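Interim report to the steering committee. The following record documents the input for 3-phosphoshikimate 1-carboxyvinyltransferase (449 residues).
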Amino acid sequence: MSAAIITLKTQENASQNLIIQRPPSGLSLQGRISIPGDKSISHRALMLGAIAEGETEIQGLLLGEDPRSTAHCFRALGAEISELNTELVRVKGIGLGNFQEPVDVLNAGNSGTTIRLMLGLLASHPGRFFTVTGDDSLRSRPMSRVVKPLQQMAAEIWGRKGNTLAPLAVQGQALKPIHYHSPIASAQVKSCILLAGLNTEGKTTVTEPALSRDHSERMLKAFGAELSIDPETNSVTVTGNAKLYGQKVVVPGDISSAAFWLVAGSIVPGSELVVENVGVNPTRTGILEALAMMGADIQLENQREVAGEPVADVRVRSSQLKSCTIAGDIIPRLIDEIPILAVAATFAEGTTIIRDAAELRVKESDRITVMAQQLNKMGGKITELPDGMEITGGNALVGAEVDSHTDHRIGMSLAIAALNASGTTTIHRAEAAAISYPNFTNTLVEVCR
Ligand code: S3P
């Protein structure tokens, strides 16, 4: 078997086309892969390091565009953050409540986690004024989900469309604690309110309808915050006037990035891949459960705990997948993996149903519409549902011109689909991968045999 021909072509407008030409004889994927650091944990390590007292050391930070946006914002707020690299990043914290008033707008780029978590911290800094914005995508994403609860805490925030869209202006206040019952299972909402509660007198509680990722809770505890968790009701309470102390953080590999290889290894016949050092926090492993339901051949090896987060090497061998239904409480535990699960379902026998995932419509792009449109261009059979998709598998895909819509996870999912499509696929605006996975194309070339 010969390898796929993979080329990256930079266009006149600086955007990149990723061209994937599958050899007529097919291909197989082989090798051991290391993946970039977890995006959610990388953001939190930089942020908590910045508001802690003393120095925080971060190993394995994701060098994607999103954590760069976080570092940029928190430097403007007064934290000293060394040059970003994967070996060791040092953050000299300024202590809780000590942000300086930045001389310019804080730009969160493409990153929902940066803007929403940061808003909780900014709103609880009395006497200081901040402005925040982001790129085209972020400026169209809903901010009311954090603005409303912060306003209930007496925050003063203004923005377009009734204070629901960035750019936003924040006049920091002494906030009052609340018990917030979030209508959505969102770690960004939960974390925003908990971070606001840190510098607020009294106890602030967030209850969510289903458990979302718990990296904030784990890391806040490790940094010395007083936190109580009620797993029965999915509630977390933080005690205000907290003091955080700098820590050593080791960032595991991002299971959301591993997901591309787990699906690729499953659907490309004759493949065997080992993805090393994958974070397998149970609030993130919905993808492993979904692929198991689909009959994937996936094993966890060398399971261990690194700096408070469970980690494993994950082996995948190709297998014939079958359809399944993905809905309910599992959705928040695999929300970012639904684009690549749609690719898996396209190659599965039968019709896969994904429901309760309306949140996908307000991610970096409308991931329901975009994924359905783009995979259908390649011969997929995806019908949009208001809160998910119906995917009929088993139709051979044919290479086509497709577009990431500047959404990193869409671009990478389409690249994996292209490995199993006949002929040539061109993915427009493929540079979006750099948001969470700057080395994606190199690894793609490495594993194609
Ligand atoms: C994230 C939470 C999720 C996820 C996003 C990262 C986080 O968003 O989709 O990529 O780091 O807290 P929601 O909290 O909006 O579901």
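The chain has a mean pLDDT of 97. The committee is asked to note this result when reviewing the revised timeline.
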